[in-house]
Amino acid sequence: MGRAPCCDKENVKKGPWSPEEDAKLKSYMEQHGTGGNWIALPQKIGLKRCGKSCRLRWLNYLRPNIKHGGFSEEEDNIICSLYLAIGSRWSIIAAQLPGRTDNDIKNYWNTKLKKKLLGKQHKNQQQARRVCRRNQRTKESKDGNAMSAKKGNDNSYWPMPPILTGQFNQVDRHASDDHGSTKNFLTNLDGEFCFHGRAEQGISLASPLEQQHLNRNSVGSIALPEQAKYFIDGYSPSGYRLSQGLDELDEMFCGNSVKLQGLDCFFGAWNMVAENNGTSTSRSMNWNNVSPLIYPPAVTSYQGMQQQCLPDELVHLLGAQI
DNA sequence: AACGCCATCAACCGCCTACCA
DNA sequence: GTGGTAGGCGGTTGATGGCGT
């Protein structure tokens, strides 16, 4: 048994809206609103359109005060920061940008912002990898611990401080994704990053310092390193996919590990452990308790970020948050 | 001029959730 | 508590136009 269609697919018009259709819908909406029923609306006004299509047309195009195109630098910053923090929750991101629709932002991200963010990154990779290798060699020659940067790590550019590796294996195992390198790297970066999750409602976008304050002593059985400064986390009873945010991180951080020390800027929440204290991953989550978002993400150390040579795009994109 | 490729964006599709009877 | 329905959302598709060859 398939799902019951929301309208008679045979008798509805598809494709671009004509000015006449727009006029009809706009006129009716301005006078009556939806009347609480989008499905019935097209019949009322004599449109051969699916109710969902009417809703979409109204929300994305006809609604008053809708802005199209011409995204400002500030809007870019907000979108990037929120995307890095919460992933492709376009409706939530759109809620932070008056006059923008989720569809618009989604398209803008997919066609422009993502490339803007990632484009130059690839050019930087080779150079960054060289720097990383050099640093790694220096470190290895210092402590004589060449093993820490090799076996058991997906990415040889990302050294694994041995002390912390064991502590977080449990957490990593719960996340059924293939971003072990990114998480391990962030987790273990001088002990300053920490992924963890709990079976609690909501997701937090608190700043790193707030996260630190809130969570330092409350992560259940997971032992936290005293020096942990950044908590990349989220709480979801039903789970939340983490792959997207970490995909981006994988992309952006690949070969740039030496530049991460200043990343106070976009944390941010990833829900990385699913329900039952992180025993499975699910694509859906309950956002009832998400709002209001704490926004913008606090930048606690912009000077530090600049001094530590973040990728230019990130400095540029995130700097205006201050 | 014709063609192919690519970027853009409006619109659609299908899944999930909230709500109501 | 359960099932049906509408609304909301994110991913994807397809039409269109611009550009290079």
Q: Can you characterise this structure?
A:
The protein is mainly alpha-helical and about 325 residues long. The chain has 13 helices and two strands. Strands 1-2 form a two-stranded parallel ribbon. Helix 4 (about 75-85) crosses helix 13 and helix 7 crosses helix 8. It is elongated, with a radius of gyration of 23 Å. The protein binds a DNA duplex (21 and 21 nucleotides) through helix 3 and helix 6. GO terms for molecular function: DNA binding. One of its GO terms (cellular component) is nucleus. This is Transcription factor MYB1-like. It is found in: Nucleus.
Helix content: 40-55%
Q: Quote the distance from N terminus to C terminus.
A: 53 Å
Strand order in space, largest sheet: 1-2
Rg over alpha carbons? 23 Å
Domains counted in the coordinates: how many?
2
Poorly predicted parts: 122-322
Sheet with most strands: 2 strands, parallel
